[in-house]
Amino acid sequence: MSKTVLVMFASIIALGGMLWLLSRSDSQPSASSFDGEAIMLYCAASNQAVMEEIRTAYEQETGRRVVIQYGPSQTLLSQMEVSGTGDLYLPADDSYLALGKDKKLIQETLPLARMQAVVAVRKGNPKSIQSLEDLLTGNVQLVQAMPEAAAVGKITREVLSSSGKWKRLEQATNAFRTTVTDVANDVNVGAADAGIVYDAVLHPYPELEYVELAELADANSQVSIGVLAGSQRPAAALHFARFVAARDRGMKYYEQFGFRPSGTDVWNDQPELSVFAGSMLRPAIEETITAFEEREGVKVSRVYNGCGILVAQMKSGQHPDAYFACDTEFMQQVSDLFPEPISVSQNELVILVQKGNPHQIASLRDLTQPGLRVGVGHEKQCAMGWITQNTFREGGVQQEIMANVTVQSPTGDMLVNQLKTGSLDAAVVYLSNAAGSADELDAIQIQGLQCSTAIQPWAVGKESPYPQLASRLFEKICSAESQDIFAAEGFRWQLEAKPTSGGAHQGADQGADQGADQSVTP
Predict the structure, then answer these.
(1) Host H or E run for residue 79
(2) How far is CA 486 from CA 98, 301, 404, 414, 456, in A?
(3) Residue 205: CB partners within 8 Å, gap ≥ 6?
């Protein structure tokens, strides 16, 4: 069959596939045919068998309705983009979700399972297919899914093109089908000797088996479900998505149907995520958490306090799902509970004084003036206090300044309030504590002392029953909108793709005792 004929044939099949999608009966409703109580899922044909089981279980357990439209991943993506309707999209490969994100169509994604590209044959493998070369002899009727429409065809072409073997396989292919299930059906009824499919697709075909080819070892797909950015019912959509991804709900079916499941959360109709966070982080994350609760339809219980107090609570047995620490030191103290922290932001210590700086404070040493009333964080109760003492020691002025300290607080906000009421002349706090107080207070930068900067790490607890839910919250915290809030609150963004390391405040030059005479805007 010539290449021109193949292209024409593929085009006809693609057109037929689109018409097929648009003319489905009640079991395949259009985007406009479901009622307001239902959610709509666009789902790859490769996942049809398992998804029907999951949908039945979900509707029976929750009383909620889900309508599903099946088809090739690319065709569904195009239809979704044109129609602007629907709530969820489950393609056969994550690459389609990436395309959807590029088009601003996809918001959240939840990983589900993996599939491997294999060769489907009749039981007993009558053609004795063991390698790619066996498909090229001319004695095998071979069918494939269209690379332009179906994920398995796309991934097969990509992997074999990189090894220079795609052209020969393409020429040896007798027909291209619209979906991967069409390929399996051809082999099942004897219309073809072999077909390239995903392993999980063959679960409903007892007369078929598959052969894994070394040449296709890298042809595997991560299956995830994505929530559409334009969904009119995101909380309901995420409710179903969490059910599908739950290890004690949807993942049981995915495993039964031959997939390799990757969902980790347990199912809860309305999960409650617990988060411990340093008090200074509250203004940076509270708005984001509230928006997350509304969109996800979940509850996030948060405890804000000095990190020393939070660590003591965790060591006494209170284990939150996630911990956002004010500094790496206080994450390291509970590293057995949070083994993989990620550095997110930075916050620097400043000297905060009344507007106009009446005592002319320009450095740490100026805090040693006789009679000056100084406030600092409590060393044992909060990261700010611990870093402050390290900074004083590094600057060689700890004993002199502490002689003037009249207040040691677990939070910087308390010190700010006392400055505003005139109970203190100066306070050493985070720059973020001064946010919004520029009309009443001035912030003096501490220069030359590395340990005056705190790094805020985030981590999910290894015992959490909701690691994926916690990870989605972290994605929101890392969003552009959230980063703008961090910046407005005096933080500097510093997200790394690896866990934080220890000693972030160690090794600074000793003996530096002068501060800056430079003010920074609160």
Answers:
(1) helix 73-83
(2) 27, 21, 32, 20, 12
(3) 120, 184, 188
Secondary structure class of 444 (helix, strand, coil): strand
Distance of alpha carbon 259 from alpha carbon 339, whole angstroms = 29
> 319, 337 in Cβ contact below 8 A?
yes
Tokens representing 70? 């099946």
CA–CA gap between residue 39 and residue 44 (Å, rounded): 16
Domains of the chain (ranges, CATH numbers): 3-111+222-261 (3.40.190.10), 115-220 (3.40.190.10), 272-345+454-493 (3.40.190.10), 347-452 (3.40.190.10)
Taking the C-alpha atoms of residue 66 and residue 91, their distance in angstroms, rounded to an integer, is 17
**Percentages of the chain per state (helix, strand, coil), in multiples of 5:** 40, 25, 35
129-138 b/e (C-beta count within 10 Å ≥ 16 → b)? beebebbeee
Interatomic CA distance for residues 430 and 432, integer angstroms: 5
- CA 474 – CA 288 distance, rounded (Å): 10
Distances (CA, A) of 489 to 266, 292, 325, 431: 35, 20, 16, 8
pLDDT at 291: 97
Tell me the pLDDT tens digit for each residue of 128-155. Answer: 999 999 999 989 999 999 999 899 999 9
Partners of 227 in beta bridges: 88
Instruction: Tell me which amino acid residue 315 is.
Output: K
**Whether 195 contacts 140, CB under 8 Å:** no
CB burial of residue 444 (10 Å; 0-12, 13-18, 19+): buried
Q: Are the C-beta atoms of 482 and 489 separated by less than 8 Å?
A: no
pTM of the model: 0.78
Identify the helix (H) or strand (E) that includes residue 311: helix 307-315
What is the tens place of the pLDDT at every residue in 295-338? 999 999 999 998 999 999 999 999 999 999 999 999 999 999 99
Residues with Cβ within 8 Å of 243's Cβ and at least 6 positions away in sequence, in order, are 54, 58, 62, 249, 250, 267
